[in-house]
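MODEL INPUT / OUTPUT PAIR
PAIR INDEX: 1
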Amino acid sequence: MGSGIAQAISTAGLNVILIDKSSDKLDAALKSINSSLERLFAKQKISQSPDQILHRLSTSTDLSSLHSADFVIEAVSEQEDLKQSIFNQLDTITPPHAILATNISSISITRLASSTQRSDRIIGLHFMQPVPLMNLVEVIKGAATSKSTFSTTIALTNHLGKRPCVSEDRPGFIVNRILMPMINEAFFALQEGVAIAEDIDFAMKAGTNQPMGPLELADFIGLDTCLAIMRVMHGGLGEDKYRPCPLLVQKVDAGWLGRKTKKGVYAY
């Protein structure tokens, strides 16, 4: 997600620094971005050459490189403690005027903001995957998010060529509030032997015109991410209908997380 967001920002003509703790991961990200840009350029989906776009993108393994950043988008995994730790560091590194956004699927923006000294300049940005191709971005306001932060974030989203969709700070927001229970129910259907995985996915693709079936989509998203979101929704909303399916929990416990581990519901 982080590399996709960086690609979208640099494509939109803005300078961006991509941060990761591993230089190897940064090298892999640049290679992936370059390949994506070459494909888009060959298909005439972008008018600038990959070299022109990559010229605006730099990398670093040091968060202090963001000492003069105006807008920061954190895109680590869906772990609240990890996100809070990074926000605490960014709060001391970045200029007082900087807006700190989190690419987030379900965790409370208000809670993350409360761990900083700039809760009015904290906001949620939920990009869809793959970022360069997907048009939607959910914009999530925390309880203390200022009108200025909100309007600046909407302006940035529009500048990226994305369509903002505004959500209040509720578990799952809009997309995952609806999507994840569907995925979870597909796991219950698989667990209970209603049908095999291939038929569950085919039924939903052919019957509801979805480009990917729910189990295939879960593998694409990451089963650990799906489980984390379901647990946040179950805890935050307190209703049994959001209880994660035991089969989903088992696969995550086994380390079968989907495409990124080459095994999930399907083998890759």
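PAIR INDEX: 2
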Amino acid sequence: MDDGARCLLERVRHCALPQGEIPCRGTWLRQKGEMRLAPGRAWLPFTAEEWFEGDGIDFRWQAKVRRAPLLTARVVDSYRNGTGVLTAAIMRFIPVARSSGPLTDEAEALRGLSELPWHPLAFRETERLTWRSGSDTKLQATYREGKIRAIAEFDIDEQGHVLGGTATRGRMAGKSLVDTPWSGIFSDYRIFDRFRIPAFAEATWHLPEGPFPYWRGQITEFRVIP
């Protein structure tokens, strides 16, 4: 790891983490927000919970998405031990989507990597996660596990806030995953359970026809899992 990356990692950790020992098996949060499935489609409200494990990128996102006044979809997005899965079901019992396999593994690894601002203990060098600096504000993370390789670049300000990130991620297009430029922004930093994390985030796909903001959410609860 180069000196610039080491300095940026220390800046992020100093901003996000409390002083002293941190007994932590992971973090948990609750969200509310809205998402849409394609440009021009309506925004759909959702509520969700998300768990991050240990100090890696493993996560599980479990959401209820309101498709109509009396119609709710349950969506589960996860990455654990090198395996990624995306499922969606109407009223929990009628499956409408499922994605798994090598492309999904990589896409979900990239999601876990891009959401590290909600799991700041993982901003450190490990066997699977390495870092390098692109400038005094750019921090690039590379995650490797088996054949999976995921890369994301974060924008860091002088205080250590992660302002956003960019990557190329797999996007569902019909029944296929298509590599697509992606960006996310983080803002409204607050202290939850002694951690300073962004309470708001928005994600955008960058399609040939233009930017497509597709997800935005607010953190309503957050806690460390001791």
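PAIR 2 NOTE: The radius of gyration is 17 Å.
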